[in-house]
Amino acid sequence: MKKILVVVLSLGLLINLSSPARALPTTGPGNRIHGLDISKWQHPNGKPINFTKMAAAGISFVMIKGGDGPDPADALAFKYLKEDRAAAQAAGIYTGFYYYAYLPDSTNKKFIIADAQAQATKAVWRLASLGGYSDRDLPIALDIENNCVRLKSNRTCAKYMNRTLISLWTQTWLDSVKAKTTKKPFVYSYAQFLQTAMVRSKSLASYPLWIANYVKTPATSQPGKKVVGCFAHAWTKGNCTTQWQIWQYSSCGIGPKYGIPSNRVDLNVFSGTEESFLNLVKGTWEPDLTDFLPENETTTISLVSSSAATTNDVTQFIVDVARPDGTPVVTGEVALKSSDTTTVLGEQKLVRSATGRWTLNITKLPAATYQVFVEFSDPTGTHALSQLPVLFTITQGPTPTPSPTPTKKPAPKPQPVDSCANQIRN
Q: Residue 307 in contact with residue 315, Cβ under 8 Å?
């Protein structure tokens, strides 16, 4: 009996090792394969996620935020991507990661394309650092849901990218990542944005869609469908429904139910069968040496234009920073520094016109002749520091007449809003 038992156990182990995973439970609304997506917000105070509990709750896949805009937020996203991907896969959960689109403040098509290509390179570097695609990885997703490229001082949007340019950027990013990794990336967005901010394009629609649409009845509803009429976008079908692969149906998942220390989590379902799901994870990609993130890579900074006048004006420098092959740097920032490069001068506002191109606006510089540096630095250590010597003169402007300060009325007390009122709490 013992010998027979050993054989059975060995056979069971062999089956487990040769099969992709346990049968995927259809625990999601509408008897669909259930998943969720996570970011730093699911790690309050740095608390870890219990992925074993998540798997036991019927979750088969998790999409992890793996890229963000400014460098500090991006570094935090990468930290949790590495930790959560390993822990989720160890618990038997399939993983994917999504890259937040960080659009450039430019209308120049050449810069738009270069920016998208540079950010696609960054996404590939990130994937390479994980070892490439394994047979537990869903394709990477591009999170494209915001076309604001410039903010006002009150944090409202001052400038939006137009439909043609945002579609060009998106198509370039998708094509670049697909060409390198062989897998088609997902597009994550919502129907209103796809209709109003992007063009209808068959080439865009050839990429799988991960759609956000929060409802109370996901088991019987269709995502991205109006009660009356149609959303008209690249993924709209003839019957006004949306062609989707993943549906983010609620942002009001009960976190602790899935082993998550935050109160809320986004919930998702997959549209098809287990076979169609497993087809998405077929095909692996292993990076070669050129696909890894460089360390302290040499950079070159060059001046595009500059202007300086009086103490009442904005002093401006537009600079490009390039990698050794001439392509733009992917991370980092620039600042105007004193001659000993220890002091940041005046009040500086940095506008990222495109990846590797910055517009630096400086105010409150005293009248003087300045022999200083525009300095590029990269806290991630990807690109090396470089400096550009600049010489300019600020003359004293007339003292401006102070404007009277208006009396502010007390703002009304905000009323509490239930953001989950029209969503399922699952």
A: yes
Please, which residues bridge with residue 248 across strands?
Answer: 212, 268
Work out the mean pLDDT of the chain and round it to a whole number.
Answer: 89
pLDDT at 130: 93
Annotate 279-347 with DSSP letters as a single string: HHT-S-B---GGGSPPSSB--EEEEEEEE--BTTS-EEEEEEEE-TTSPBPSS-EEEEE-TTS--B-SE
Q: Which residues pair with 377 in a beta bridge?
A: 333
Alpha-carbon gap, residue 426 to 420, rounded angstroms: 11
Spell out a b/e string for 130-159, using b for 16 or more CB atoms within 10 Å of the CB, else e: bebbeebbbbbbbbbbbbebeeeeeeeeee
Contact yes or no for 89/81 (Cβ under 8 A) = no
Residue 75 corresponds to which tokens in the numbers above? 């570094």
Most confident of 21-35, 189-203, 388-402: 189-203
% the chain with pLDDT above 90: 72
Burial 35-68 (b: 16+ CB within 10 A, else e): bbbbbeebbeeeeebbbeebbebebbbbbbbbbb
What does the alpha-carbon distance between residue 125 and residue 290 come to, in Å, rounded to a whole number?
9
Q: In terms of Cα–Cα distance, which of 395, 372, 390 is closest to 304?
A: 390
- Long-range own/partner contacts, residues 364-367 (CB < 8 A, 24 or more apart): 364/311, 365/311, 365/315, 365/394, 366/311, 366/394, 367/310, 367/311, 367/394, 367/395, 367/396
Secondary structure letter of residue 175 according to DSSP = H
Among 130, 43, 137, 52, residue whose Cα is nearest residue 87: 52
pTM attached to this predicted model: 0.85
Question: 267-292 b/e with 16+ CB inside 10 Å = b?
Answer: bbbbbeebeebeebbeeebebeeebe
Q: Convert 367-409 into a string of H (helix), E (strand) and C (coil).
A: CEEEEEEEEEECCCCCECCEEEEEEEEEECCCCCCCCCCCCCC
* Nearest CA-CA partner of 352 in 115, 172, 146: 115
Q: Provide the pLDDT confidence category of residue 18 given band limits of 50, 70 and 90.
A: very low
- 210 - beta bridge partners? 188, 246
- Nearest Cα to Cα of residue 37 among 326, 255, 194: 255
CB crowding 327-363: b at 16 or more within 10 Å, else e? ebbbbbbbbbbeeeeeeebbebeebbbbbbbbbbbbe
What pLDDT does residue 22 have? 57
